[in-house]
Design brief:
With about 120 residues, the protein is mainly α. It has four helices and no strands. Helix 1 packs antiparallel against helix 2 and helix 2 runs parallel beside helix 4. The radius of gyration is 19 Å and the shape is globular.
């Protein structure tokens, strides 16, 4: 009986650890994608640094105000733009820039809504 109880407890504990590790990995991947797209925005646009500062300022406001509704609305709008651009087979350079900008905002909203980062 003790062996069965120990086995059940160890299975439960291992599943909790596995869930925690996979969540941490997905959070790290999102964070990495957000950083890479931020750096690409800085190089793609002439005023890229200013654009990134404006995005960061807006997300800091969402973070401090805990305005999840606006963040969710922005995420929905940006997701529609991403889906629209992903359906095209060939993207122009302006469309690639726009897609990268949409991806950056989308990654940031995911981090904000799911991980409060």
């Amino acid at each position: 009986m003790k062996k069965i109880a120990l086995l059940i407890i160890s299975l439960l504990f291992s599943s909790i650890i596995f869930t925690w590790v996979s969540a941490a990995e997905s959070e790290a991947k999102l964070y990495k994608d957000a950083i890479l797209s931020t750096n690409k925005i800085k190089t793609d646009y002439i005023n890229g640094k200013d654009l990134v500062k404006k995005i960061e300022k807006a997300f800091n406001k969402f973070r401090y105000d805990k305005d999840r509704v606006k963040a969710q609305n922005i995420q929905n709008i940006v997701k529609k733009g991403i889906d629209k651009l992903n359906t095209k087979t060939n993207l122009t350079s302006d469309e690639r820039k726009k897609l990268n900008l949409y991806n950056n905002i989308y990654y940031r909203t995911l981090l904000l809504l799911n991980y409060q980062l």
